[in-house]
Amino acid sequence: MLGLCSLIQAQELPSEDYTWRNVVIGGGGFVTGIIMHPRQKDLFYARTDVGGAYRWDAAAQRWLPLTDGIGDVDLTGIESLAVDPSDPERVYLAAGIYSRGKAAILRSNDRGRTWLRTDVPFKMGGNESGRFNGERLAVDPNQGNILFFGSRNDGLWKSTDRGTSWQCVKSFPNTGSSETSLETNDSRPWFGFGQQPVGIVCVLFVPASGESDFPTSVLYVAVSTTDTNLYHSIDGGLTWQAVKNQPVGLRPNHIALASDGVLYLSYGQEPGPNTMNDGAVWKFNPRDGSWKNITPFKPAQADQPFGYGAVAVDAKHPATVMVATFAHWHPMDEIFRSTNGGAGWIPLLSKAEWDHASAPYTRDFQPHWIGDLEINPFHPEQVLFTTGYGIWSCKNVMESDTGHSTRWTFLDDGLEETVPLALISPPAGAHLLSGVGDIDGFRHDDVNISPAQGSFKGTRYSNTEDLAFAGLRPNVIVRSGAGRNTAVRAAISTDGGNNWSPLGNEPTNSAGAGSITISADGQTIVWSPRRSAPHYSRDCGTHWLACAGLFAYDRVVADTVNPRWFYAFDSHISKLLVSTNGAASFKVTAATFPAKKAFAGQFSFSETRSATLAATPGREGDLWLCFHNQGLYHSTNGGLSFAKSVRVSEANSLGLGQAAPGRAFPTLYLAGKIGSCPGLFRSDDGGAAWVCINDDQHQFGSISHVTGDPRIYGRVYFGTSGRGIIYGDPVSTPARNNL
Hints:
five-stranded mixed beta sheet, 2 domains, Methylamine Dehydrogenase, Chain H, mainly beta
């Protein structure tokens, strides 16, 4: 298959180099695992549930994204990550976001700078239940060409050629999908539902049982079931037996191997992450086969249910162990530390100091979903743990051994994992406002710094689903959102997004946040709550009236100049509808489009729609209609008629920005296809000619919510499926570090 650059050359499409950076939020998503190389100092990796993988750059003190070259959204969730203990250059990813999608093993011999891909027959669930368990993927520490992978539903697999090919280990007990979970926690509600097999959650080699260049003899494999769940092999994986006298009734989450051969295991009643109602920590000594319950704080004795998610052991001090609770919500999860093999424990977080400076929004969050916990093998005074919104680091953990408090810093510089749901770039005020899954949204006065005020001030939501500003009064902005038990799921700001107040009421029978827009003069708000027909209000939501002629799921867009004009595309009848009376009623225009059956469909967070509509800033009646599989259409007469773009074959998202020097029409930015070439494109002449502005190294899983900057020529913003918000400038344009 040709890469993007090859397709551009084959079709003789012009291209332009861009510099791509993240709009800085700092974390925001679930980091499901940290892997520290056991023999190479400061070589850390992190995996996420929807945002790919990262490597720590110790010199720059920041995380480097490793999977931006992935253009297949199915591979943006990392099920597991493994390093080769005998070769620090080699790293492997088990990539697959959902068990019904594609899955692959990605392998690198240059620390993740480049990857080779092997598609595999076994399914993965990087954003499904038990996604912080692990690691499921492991490299033989003595013979690096051997790898094992524990799948969710298809048993144990082995590779003898560094991950290039895989064979099922048929001698392993047929655990399959013996137990499944209905858990899900995704910002996009149409993903992750249904039964989710968890299967094998951990594969562990015992290095001391082998020698260099010979296969390691002893392995352990843990399965997410409340029955027999721990197996071992003493012949390199040829045969398997259940470990005797093991505890049952709970599911294993993690296993940590101490240098003296003792294993420490954390357990939960459920695989997590949404719920975990019970749990424990056990210690197993293979030398005598003894098991000991060393749970520091038993859930049965607490005032709330919880489990244990992570366990770690000091590589230099085998009796130093750390464990973390999971789903202990009040007041927060806790980390316990023991220096005597679990005989006694000290809690750390309840009296810890916290440094939120790098990401001020984190002040609103308590540590939760502690899915992984790692002690630096070269500097045991440093400990890292993951949360549902990023990574915390402590460099003085040994102070706790003498009764002193520990200090934790949010260590997420460069690690941007969010799912943007809405983006706008007004012509005045902040250059960007964003709606983000799970952490509401932000006003970005400086796109290179996490906003000092944190998330939106005033009315708060878990998810901000839509944003719109008044074309002639850009300081007036409306947004819709969900979560946080708010009474009204839409808000308004009259100061450019600095402060927000809830609208007066919701339309009748509102079922969710949905989409929202506002007239050019800021006087009329049109709200299309999820699964409800659009309504309009002229008194900031105190009273609502149904928009005549529209139906549920119709998304309304305001004209940017004429405050009386609004537009909507109805995918059910494949027609554009126009209102010239301030959204009171809509009428079908004569414009014709491809029949509905030709559409492949496109998901929006707030509704399902086959086309998206955009109004050109500063031009009355100027509209663009994007069809996923049918290209791009343009109207200059208020939607009465449309002309189809000759070159655009797919239009997934369109944004408009400042006109090019010497041009009058705004610059267009398109995520879609020109001919058969997919990519992100720019047009300086109203869509007649296009230039490709991304490349093979900058695919970001998927590109959506494309928005141009109305004050900076060439600048484009867009959302991703989990890599946060990206912005780009032409390489030829001087950097604007403070915009």
